[in-house]
Write a sequence for this structure.
């Protein structure tokens, strides 16, 4: 699995967009970028994933650079409930492959 | 998204006893489930991969005789912590890969184990 690098923590203002960066410079061509978040004392929650193209769903948008060496998760209108640890993971999408978690980014949404 | 449920959400047991945690995929079949452990303020650590109908694959450093994993059906995997000690107190989380969901992995709510 390609190593990912994320900032340790970041603050953002309620109602504003939160842009969470992730570097994955050694990502291989068949590795997807997955984002999960973990709210305190809960299991991780799937947010979004992508391979090359930008993706959007009801929770967030994922912007992947053309060279695929980095990506940004965008929470369009952060709320206090978005306070969590966000994990960026590069992984092959295959039946037996497991997710390996790094340190993630601790996001604090402030009023 | 697909739903993965764990039971119990929290459990307290005495040292030396065994405790079982269940992980169920509620609306999909999962041939593969994963068990993680998480200590306070740390990231998730993969313990083992549970395969339906076969033996689990354990990560390096995880004692297979202490953490027994059974994956008897396509919707249920169990983790049994045997002869529990206070250092086994942790947050245990399972996850399952949903084939119909493009192999996306979904996580359970987690189970808090406290050994006293």
């Amino acid at each position: 699995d390609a190593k990912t690098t994320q900032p340790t923590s970041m603050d953002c203002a309620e109602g504003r967009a939160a842009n969470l960066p992730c570097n994955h410079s050694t990502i291989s061509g068949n590795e997807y970028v997955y984002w999960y978040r973990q709210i305190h004392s809960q299991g991780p929650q799937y947010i979004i994933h992508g391979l090359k193209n930008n993706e959007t769903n009801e929770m967030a948008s994922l912007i992947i650079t053309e060279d695929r060496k980095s990506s940004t998760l965008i929470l369009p209108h952060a709320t206090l409930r978005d306070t969590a640890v966000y994990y960026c993971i590069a992984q092959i999408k295959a039946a037996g492959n497991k997710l390996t978690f790094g340190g993630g980014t601790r996001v604090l949404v402030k009023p | 998204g697909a739903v993965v449920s764990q039971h119990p959400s929290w459990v307290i047991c005495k040292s030396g006893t065994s405790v079982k945690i269940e992980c169920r995929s509620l609306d999909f079949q999962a041939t593969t489930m994963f068990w993680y452990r998480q200590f306070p303020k740390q990231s998730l650590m993969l313990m083992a991969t549970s395969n339906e109908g076969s033996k689990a694959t354990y990560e390096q450093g995880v004692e297979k005789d202490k953490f027994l994993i059974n994956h008897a059906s396509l919707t249920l995997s169990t983790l049994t912590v045997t002869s529990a000690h206070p250092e086994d107190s942790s947050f245990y989380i399972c996850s399952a890969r949903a084939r119909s969901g493009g192999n996306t992995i979904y996580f359970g709510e987690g189970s808090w184990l406290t050994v006293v």
